[in-house]
Design brief:
The protein is α+β, with helices and mostly antiparallel strands. The chain is about 45% helix and about 20% strand.
Length: about 375
């Protein structure tokens, strides 16, 4: 397996795709690449010859040619509208209108498109030429007679042509980033083929990685249980599941916090809990369920700890499971990097256990004085 992994890492195709995937992209960073409104805003910006992209009517010219829109003189364009008369993009010129309804993952509903068409023709009754275009990644809907499907893939092709011309470096970078977004949305065949070729060549390796990813919670649970059992803080592991790994300290045992509801053999009202979520790990201090007989004790404990921690206790008394403290140990964006570094992760978990248990053991000692 090690030999296969080294071949994969050193494969030129792997290195190329890795470099491409690590390039900065503002759309991915801002998490807006799937949102229709931002695509419409950007396209309207490109259509407008007076915007600061410096392209003039270049994008509109290529657009007209690509989709064979006859009787359109782009030099006579008057205005680019956004969200006008409910339409996403509307281009108005001398004697013509181009209407674009933009969809990414949504669909037309009812007689939406026919209503748009009626409104536009009524508002711009003096125009002779109308084009009603339905922009989407895939042609998977039936459209009314006057409406015509245009693809995001074709938009990408237009932008790739423009990007080869003499444009500023910053606009080139921006357009290149947007092309990458479109390729992601449309499942670009060329890029997909490259990934499939790699998978075919290293299928056994990918399958092993997938198996590990699917079992990540079970693997992390074993690691956490091992750390708790070998800790020098005299921690006692409780009955736990894959998503919740619970334990208590010798202080909790000695101070007789045994007035929780009889949901587990040890019956302690307060305990520590690792929340082993997918791609995220936190260590919580939990005050659990109790019976009516001990409800006052539970509330007194909550009140004391909230006062010491300087947190609001108003919403905690009625909760069966009161998470009075929580600290995230692994965040989603660093999960795999840390999980693969077992020694570093173990040390991080041990340090957090030591810090949190020591802090709350001291508070519990104080509570009983």
């Amino acid at each position: 397996m090690k030999e296969i992994f080294e071949k994969f890492i050193n494969d030129p195709k792997t290195q190329k795709l890795s470099e491409e995937s690590q390039k900065f992209n503002a759309f991915f960073a801002l998490k807006i690449w799937k949102t229709e409104i931002y695509h419409s805003n950007l396209l309207a910006w490109l259509f407008n010859p007076h915007e600061n992209h410096g392209l003039g009517t270049k994008f509109l010219r290529h657009f007209i040619t690509k989709f064979s829109l006859s009787d359109i003189d782009c030099d006579t364009i008057k205005k680019v509208y956004r969200e006008y008369l409910d339409t996403d993009i509307l281009l108005e010129g001398d004697g013509w209108c181009i209407v674009i309804e933009n969809k990414i993952y949504s669909y037309q509903h009812g007689k939406q498109l026919q209503k748009y068409e009626e409104k536009i023709k009524q508002k711009f009754a003096d125009k002779k030429t109308f084009y009603f275009l339905y922009l989407k990644p895939w042609n998977n809907e039936h459209l009314p007679n006057k409406w015509r499907f245009i693809s995001y893939e074709a938009i990408s092709q237009i932008l790739k042509t423009i990007a080869k011309k003499d444009i500023s470096a910053e606009i080139y970078d921006f357009i290149t980033q947007y092309i990458k977004v479109i390729d992601m949305i449309t499942d670009n065949v060329e890029e997909r083929t490259q990934y499939l070729e790699l998978y075919s060549k290293y299928q056994h390796l990918f399958d092993k990685i997938y198996d590990y990813k699917e079992n990540q919670q079970a693997i992390l649970k074993s690691l956490l249980e091992g750390i708790i059992k070998t800790s020098n803080k005299n921690l006692i592991l409780m009955e736990s599941g894959e998503k919740y790994i619970r334990f208590y300290s010798s202080t909790i045992k000695q101070k007789d916090f045994k007035y929780g509801e009889n949901w587990k053999p040890n019956n302690y009202i307060i305990f520590y809990e690792f929340q082993n979520k997918k791609n995220e790990l936190s260590l919580d201090v939990v005050i659990g369920k109790t019976t009516d007989k001990y409800q006052d004790k539970k509330e007194n404990l909550i009140k004391f700890l909230c006062k010491q921690l300087k947190i609001d206790d108003s919403n905690l008394y009625q909760q069966n499971w009161c998470h009075i403290y929580s600290k995230t140990i692994l965040y989603k964006n660093e999960y795999w990097q840390k999980v693969l570094s077992t020694k570093e992760l173990t040390k991080n978990i041990q340090n957090n256990i030591t810090h949190i248990v020591s802090k709350f053991d001291a508070l519990l000692e104080k509570y009983y004085k």
